[in-house]
Amino acid sequence: MSFFGFDPTGPSSSRGLDDDQLETYNYEDTYEGLGDEGDDALNDETFGAASSNIGKDFDFTGGMGMKPAAPSQPTTQHISYAQAAQTDEILQPMASLWTDESKAATGERPTEPKILSLEEIEAKLRGNQPQQHLQMPPPPQQQLPPYMLLPPQIQQQILNAAVASGQFPNAAAAAQAMSQGFMPPPPPFNQGMMPPQFMPFPPQMAQQQMLNIPSQFNQGIPPMTQQQQPPVDASQQQQQQSQPPQQQQQQPPQQHQIPQQPKPQQHQNLKQQLLPSQDQQQARTEKRDVDFPVLGATKEEPGNHITPQEPQTLPQQQPQQQHQQQSQHQQQQNYRNNYNNSGNNGNNGNNRHHHFNQQQRQHQHQLQMQQQFESMTPEEREKFLTRQQKVSKITRCSGFMNPRDKDFVTRFQLSQIVTDDPYNEDFYCQVYKVLNSSIHENNMSSIAQKYLDQSGHRLGGRSKRADVALQRMQQQVSKAVTVAKERGERTGVLSREGALGKVSFGTGKEPRKQLVLKTKEESADAEDDYLPKEYSFSKSSRTFQLSIIENIYSQILKLESMERENQEFTTVELWKSLHLSDKMSTSSGEVIGPFISILSFDKMMKVFNRLFHFLTAEQKFQLIEYIFTNLQKIDVILKGSYKNYIQENYEVPEAVTKKIDLFQLTIMKTLVLYLSESKFQDVLRVLDVVISNNNVLFLSTTKLGLSLVTILTSRLELIKQEFAQSLSAQDLSQWQFVYDKLFQCLEGRLTTIFPPYLSNDESKKVKTSTSGADDSYIWQFLASLSLAGLLNHQRIIVDEIRNEIFGIMALAKTSNESGDVEKANKALGNLNLFLNVMGLKATENDISELS
Amino acid sequence: MSEITSTPVPSSEPLDLIKLCLDEQIFVKLRGSREMIGKLHAYDSHCNMVLSDAVETIYYVHDSQSGEIKSKTKKSEMVFVRGDSVILVTDAANV
Amino acid sequence: MSSFQPINPKPYLLSLIDSKIIIKLKFNNIEYKGTLKSVDNYFNLLLKEDVIEIDKNMESTDGSIVGTPLNGELFIRCNNVLWVSQDLSDDDDDGKVEEGKQVDDDVDATMS
């Protein structure tokens, strides 16, 4: 191959040198460490035959032939399909052509069955293109000794020659041999079938080049054959042995002779001599095949070969091809020697010719391809092209690994994944096995079936262990899609608490832990009576707060008057007056933003809307974010939790209740209005901020906190459902993520959102003056929570608050019985607000599906 | 305690205190041994004030001999306090 | 004291701002001790939150001063003020004017 690579530059420039080189050239030199050359030469020969045969169709005058490029183009009208296929595959740069060709040249002989099947395929293909049809099905290129690429007619000629030469008893045997690549290029030449003028390359050129090559090597030019070629010496020796000794001896001197057109008879002689050597060559290649890991052997199976072209792409064939080339080269040299013996002039010409053939084989292939292509009907072309594409696509990466490689990798992977429970842990291994064992049937059900077989199943699986493993695997898969988010960021372990205790599921990433330690934060959350500290301020702070408010008021009044008079105004002063970046510490040392602290003043609540009105959009969002970040620090919300008043029978003081109402009427109203016009991302961000900066569990015990979260979640879900198309996948996944965070905060403690005085859970409820107050905000929250959640979320919710649901139903029943229909309807209405989300409907007696 | 030592809006004059207490509970000491707590709605420079939900506490000597002092309270939803009777005003939270 | 220098009321009051003062009301023998925060043209007075209310009637028995901290700023309407003076009884104060202290002492003495 490398040899060929040389050629393009070589021919013209090296001509002059050739003669000189020839003089120094001797057999040993050429072969020393340069087996490639020899092989290449041999290749040349075989291909040379092909090209020369092809040349029949074209008239090539020697003069014309002087230019390497020119002759090749016209030469090839008929291509063997195999040839076409070879070139097809590549079609691109010369280099790739070369390699491919060489690959093609060698092919995998070892497996006869393959050959046959390929032959069949080719025969079919031939059927499509009658003009190329031969009596002999063209051998698959894979294995195809170079001469196989010859046009059919020529092949036949070769066959005939072979038979005639007595190597084969009859044509059939010869054909067989040929198809198997055992047959050397027979002596069509001998029979004078190839007139010199048909030869695609001017003999002189060829000769020059031939001669040139050894000289180049001698001169220290790196051989292009470096690629994994094993030293060819042995094979060369073999070949040499096979050749009559005299030939070798005669080689060197004759090479300087002036190129002349080859003479057919000489060819004949050469070919005959070549026969044995080629056999050897083949034997050698076979041996090589064995030595080599059979790369891509599986790939080469008939099933994979859709078309004959495919084999060429298999990289593993290269080495073999190279070998062949090497041997060919050697043979060529022998050849040359032979020529020298018989007739110098002719010999040289012939050599050159072969060499050129080799060089330009690719050109020819390409050209042949083109011509063939041109001769096709449009449909055929299209078909041809698409097939070509397909083939190249399919085979692009095929054969990179041979079965042993794969096996190694597999074993390696397996060894890595050996765990106590590999079936459970390694999904990919499973799938790999499944896919590997069922290439043809890769529909899902068969995969599933295989998987079951492999991993075991209760209906006849391998083992119980596997059975469990399967279930867990299934769990994992479904969890991966749906519940992965439920996994806490903190723990990373999916855990579930049930009546029987806590179960945690391990994952590959986060193995199951023997001990699940609660973090401080968690345990704090878990404590029922956890409360954020109340913020109390010194008197001076109060004055300060009041003065802030006063300042805000005056700013607002100023702005309002300016607005009334349609003056330009800026909100810089006002923004400053909010002191958002300031901190003040409470008497207990807590640090809190002044603005948050003043939100609990009635007059601040009252002015909030007016204040908000003047802010720019940017400021508005900033303010909103700020407020939600500090939600649980807002005095009204803080004091609104029923947990503050355990001593007082959970009764929230009237003053606080009043403030809460005021907050709802003022700030909350403003916030809701704002949020109802906000973008999805903004709302989502706000919710995220709430969850990350506040104790959601505590917030949920307050009416205001719960209501605000409800507003956010329902707004998000609303946008998601109404304007889903405007949301990116990222938005949605982000929302899912935030939701899971939220849900995780509440999961397992959902009942705490029911203040005892509003609860209908018999075990919990407390009768107070505020019992019977409106609890719709709780049900609204539950509704929005389950609306945004998945089925399993909903299931958890229902499960947790089951008692409340039944309590409401019982309440409705007793109310109805006592004649208080209105109360019953109201209670059921709230409950149904929640249940309807899940397509359920409750009456005082039972829960049914929503019709 | 506020970390911010210098009040951003210093009461530049005494009446500003009353201003700050707008809409807040305010404590007013009146002549005639009366105190009043209520939410300040309005005021002027004479300390005339309007309070809502005001609770007026009147101290009187129950028994002149023992000097025992008693008090009674009087609530009014909205009340106007004439400034000339006002002795002092402070934030109700302080009392 | 040494050389007479006329001081007008308003500049005097303004000079007392941020220093400890005592305010005596016209009636009930009540004094307020605290730091003067501001004064206006009516001579309305505003005391800082350290203000203490002293009912002179209650302390007569043993002479000890019984004060009730108000814990908040105090507005005193002008018309009720009998007099205003600097409070020099507090050692920890900056003790602005020596003379004033003497005066106060005098006053206290006379009062008691």
TrEMBL record, chain A:
Residues 1-23, 216-367 are annotated as: Disordered. GO terms for cellular component: nucleus; P-body. Keywords: Cytoplasm, Nucleus, RNA-binding. Residues 1-62, 225-841 form the mRNA decay factor PAT1 domain. It comes from the Eukaryota. One of its GO terms (molecular function) is RNA binding. It is found in: Cytoplasm, P-body; Nucleus. Its main location: cytoplasm. Residues 226-282, 316-350, 357-367 have a biased composition (Low complexity). Signal peptide: none annotated. GO terms for biological process: deadenylation-dependent decapping of nuclear-transcribed mRNA; P-body assembly. InterPro entries: Pat1-like, PAT1_dom. Residues 306-315 have a biased composition (Polar residues). Belongs to the PAT1 family. This is mRNA decay factor PAT1 domain-containing protein. It comes from [Candida] arabinofermentans NRRL YB-2248.
TrEMBL record, chain B:
It is found in: Nucleus. Signal peptide: none annotated. It holds the Pfam family LSM. GO terms for biological process: mRNA splicing, via spliceosome. It comes from the Eukaryota. Keywords: mRNA processing, mRNA splicing, Nucleus, Ribonucleoprotein, RNA-binding, Spliceosome. GO terms for cellular component: spliceosomal complex; U4/U6 x U5 tri-snRNP complex; U6 snRNP. Residues 13-95 form the Sm domain. InterPro entries: Lsm3, LSM_dom_sf, Sm, Sm-like_LSM3, Sm_dom_euk/arc. GO terms for molecular function: RNA binding. The keyword RNA-binding applies. The keyword Ribonucleoprotein applies. Binds specifically to the 3'-terminal U-tract of U6 snRNA. Belongs to the snRNP Sm proteins family. LSm subunits form a heteromer with a doughnut shape. This is LSM complex subunit LSM3. It comes from [Candida] arabinofermentans NRRL YB-2248. The gene is LSM3.
Automatic annotation (TrEMBL), chain C:
Keywords: mRNA processing, mRNA splicing, Nucleus, Ribonucleoprotein, RNA-binding, Spliceosome. InterPro entries: Lsm6/sSmF, LSM_dom_sf, Sm, Sm_dom_euk/arc. Its main location: nucleus. It comes from the Eukaryota. GO terms for cellular component: catalytic step 2 spliceosome; pICln-Sm protein complex; U1 snRNP. It is found in: Nucleus. One of its GO terms (molecular function) is RNA binding. One of its GO terms (biological process) is mRNA splicing, via spliceosome. Residues 88-112 are annotated as: Disordered. Residues 8-90 form the Sm domain. Belongs to the snRNP Sm proteins family. SmF/LSm6 subfamily. This is Sm domain-containing protein. It comes from [Candida] arabinofermentans NRRL YB-2248.
